[in-house]
Write a structure and sequence with these properties.
By secondary structure, this protein is of the alpha+beta class. Helices cover 31% and strands 25% of the residues. The chain has a domain at 108-231. It contains six helices and ten strands, in the order E-H-H-E-E-E-H-E-H-E-E-E-E-H-H-E. Strands 1, 2, 3, 4, 5, 6, 7, 8, 9 and 10 form a ten-stranded mixed beta sheet that branches. It is globular. The chain starts with a strand and ends in a 14-residue tail after the last strand. This is Acetyltransferase (GNAT) family protein. Pfam families: Acetyltransf_1 (PF00583).
């Protein structure tokens, strides 16, 4: 399998979005193609595809978005074609992009968003939330103790509540004061920027207030094993 950097001006990007991202994520969890392409062009995002050398077709993609201000890289999307799920290609691709991002962006933290299995049902198209959590557990991820939600990614789509915010990599620069925690100020900056970029502002609604109140911990934001996600508070639609 070849790992290829995705140029948003090429047919590969069109294929990746049409054949991998669009079938793998519900509309409210997927940014519009033109928005992602613009971020790729401006190098505030990076995408790598696993391409079958025989067919030339992409079978998996990882797309991350970079916040220079907070030094955080968000793994926005990891998608594997239905026929390649369970083959290990997702794990190999994730390992490759984490190494690439360390060289290109030098992030102090790599985060990812996933659906909480208790709040989201699985489907043949979009996959199994329980299996996704197990996958990230194998990758060494921990869950931040926050009532996280994904912002509304367009004017036509709502927020996605009941999400987990995972930490895949954490540099000493963003570790919290207490062992096993992340610096709350860095998370505050990242999440505020994330909301402004997608929703235009940091709202004063109940879920947003709860999220930022949970950041108000001088000792740091606890990083929990994924076996303990039921103890993490969850966001809900007001």
């Amino acid at each position: 399998m070849d790992f290829v950097t995705v140029d948003p001006t090429t047919e590969l990007w069109d294929e990746v979005y049409r054949e991998l991202l669009r079938p793998s994520f519900p509309d409210n969890e997927l940014s519009p193609a033109d928005v992602l392409a613009q971020r790729l062009q401006h190098e505030t995002a990076a995408a790598t595809a696993a391409v079958d050398p025989d067919s030339g077709k992409p079978v998996a993609v990882a797309l991350g978005e970079w916040s220079e201000r907070s030094r955080v890289q968000l793994l926005s999307y990891l998608a594997v074609s239905r026929g390649q799920r369970g083959t290990g290609i997702g794990g190999r691709l994730l390992t490759a992009v984490r190494e690439d991002w360390r060289e290109r962006f030098r992030p102090c933290a790599v985060l990812a968003e996933v659906e909480h299995p208790s709040d989201h049902d699985g489907s043949r198209a979009h996959g199994d939330p329980d299996a996704r959590v197990r996958f990230y557990e194998r990758q060494g991820a921990k869950a931040l103790e926050l009532p996280h939600f994904q912002p509304a990614l367009s004017e036509a789509t709502p927020r996605t509540y009941g999400m987990l915010l995972l930490c895949l990599d954490l540099d000493s620069a963003l570790r919290g004061p207490e062992p096993g925690t992340m610096d709350p100020s860095a998370l505050h900056e990242f999440l505020a920027e994330y909301l402004r970029e997608n929703e235009g502002e940091v709202g004063d609604d109940k879920p947003t207030k709860a999220l930022f109140k949970a950041l108000d911990r001088e000792s740091g934001i606890p990083l929990r094993p994924l076996s303990e996600i039921e103890s993490i508070p969850r966001s809900a639609k007001p």
